Automatic annotation (TrEMBL):
Coiled coil: 336-363
Keywords associated with the record: Coiled coil
Coiled coil among keywords: yes
Protein name (record): DUF1998 domain-containing protein
Segments forming domain MrfA-like Zn-binding: 552-655
InterPro entries assigned: DrmB, MZB
Pfam families the UniProt entry points to: MZB
Domain of life: Bacteria
Amino acid sequence: MRPRGGPLREDRGTPVTEHFTTTEVLDPLGDLDADAAQKASKNRAKVGSARPSSLLYTYGPGSVMDLPHFTVMPAGTDDWERIWARRSSIPTVHAPRLLDAVRRFPGQWTVQELRPFPWAPKESIFSKEGDDLGVPARVFPQWLRCTGCDLLGRLDRFAYVNTNPYRPDQARFEHPNCPGRKGQGKSKVPRQAVPARYLLACPDGHLDEFPYDWWVHQGASCPAGVEFAPLTMDERTVGKGASASIRCGACSATRPMNEAQGEAGRAKLPGCRGRHPHLGAFDKRGCKNGTRFMLLGASNLWFPATQAIVVMPEAEAATQETLGVQLLAEAGKKRVEKYHDRLDDLREYLEDEESDLAAWSDETLALAVEQALAPEPTLEEQTEALRDWDPTDLLVPEWNYLQKDPLGPQHEGDAKSGLALTKKAVHEELKARHVSRVLAVDRLRKVNAVVGFTRIDEMERANDMPARIVPLSRSGRPTWAIATEDRGEGVYLQFDESAVAAWEKRIYDTPLWEAHRQSHERNYNARYSETSKDVAPDSRMAPPRYWLLHTLSHVLLREMAMYSGYSAASLSERIYAWEGREGRGPSAGLLIVTTASDSDGTLGGLVQLSDPEQLWRVAHRALERAVRCSSDPVCAQRTPKDPEDFLHGAACHTCAMASETSCEKANRFLDRRFLVDLPGAQGLGFFR
């Protein structure tokens, strides 16, 4: 079955807009799409497929995705428009609370709806449904190396082979008539070409091909006077960094790639040209940054800027912030302008269209009209609003809804949310350990959206994050954002606030907490962007209650995987752990879920574990295992000391760390000593 994210299709079209400009001169750093020779034909054949979660978190627009024989870059959302144009109607994802969060990001104010990936189900592997849909992508990088003769050349030096529509894994580039490394004449068998694995990136998210011709000639032209020098890449030690050497066949100049590494190598690199390959364009404002040497496949090449919510019935009603957006989507701007002072006529139109908005009160409808006709905020206003917004606000409505007891078994709040809850009895042993409530989440719907991405630093690592997020659209005024829906099940545990608060107050005064705080400060100053130096590190430090519930979540994830029938990597966490402040009460709870992108969701293995006896057995075993680690006493006594700056204590991959698909904090803020008493750290554990 083809994954729901849909096929990737190689596309060589490059539009030009007022916000970006493409190069008109073909050069080693240029986009080959600008070459007139490439305009003769376009290949939109399927070259691969990916799951929605992969396209959202790992290989979204602007990333470099590995295919069996070459790499591609999913294109920006402008190129998706012509894919959606092949359908008379476009599906949308209902999640007003998430839509409001997306619209807070600079450049996203005009977003009016959330759309899934262009995909349609097939009746069989050979049927044609959905063949015209898919995520457009371009080959990147567009410099390849022949595996037979080490020829290093642009994309047009090689032949593209993709003849079998049912075998996209066979799509590849070949070097016809390859003479081999010894130059013994033309080979009868074409040799495969693979991507040249060096790139240039900058902190503002620009990405470019490495200028091999410029590099080997020390920034000058080839002394032999050839326009396009014949280059080879000699690479004999694969997988050991920048181990290759570039050689010019015309003048015999040679230069190793390892000269570009490190701080010393950075000074030898050219400046950034402001290129966005996923948009097929260059930033018309240019870029003043220096470039960073980057290996293809580096983990810091692409960090998604995403937001996600678990859909809650009452929380997903029309929010105050999205009233105008929903009215514009239903009635259109011209009709809203026409009826802005005649609400009865506007309501009559909504009733004729059988819109749910017709049930709004006069006050709500008037507010929606006011929002719909309000002037667009400036970029500075959007940036300031995002700085003042706390992402925890997305979790607060979920926490508030989970405080209410469901009316009965598998109680559904409404049909749109897809949430069904059952209140479970709490085992006496768990009550003694301050577990106050347990809910079986029989069904849930999780919605995820991506608003852009960053390079070099992940989204959380700089206070200038709004300016660093790379847009997914050339226009700068997108009307929709990419979203996915996952359905599944889970178990919710809530803890007694008074017990958590008393424990947390005690932890704040311990040397262990002070050691973690100082380590976090060192980590922040050493690894975060230079532009974040005016932000207090303690403001980004998770409170002790988060460390407690996060560590508990990880040990439960491991244990539940043994009983539920799901792999540990398919389980994920959602932590509700913040201290109270004005306008927001404290929280102490965790939700462990498993979700799938198909409509059927999951199989009920987690819900069964919410049974009192089952949950106590799992929790007891998890806490019992947390007392011991095969890496003890090293793990149990791990405390960061200057100059160490790691963000965990007594936790390692043997005892408490989880896969990156499960953990919401990349295995940071974990310490078993906050969970249970360990040798040498008596009296710190919450579950003593």
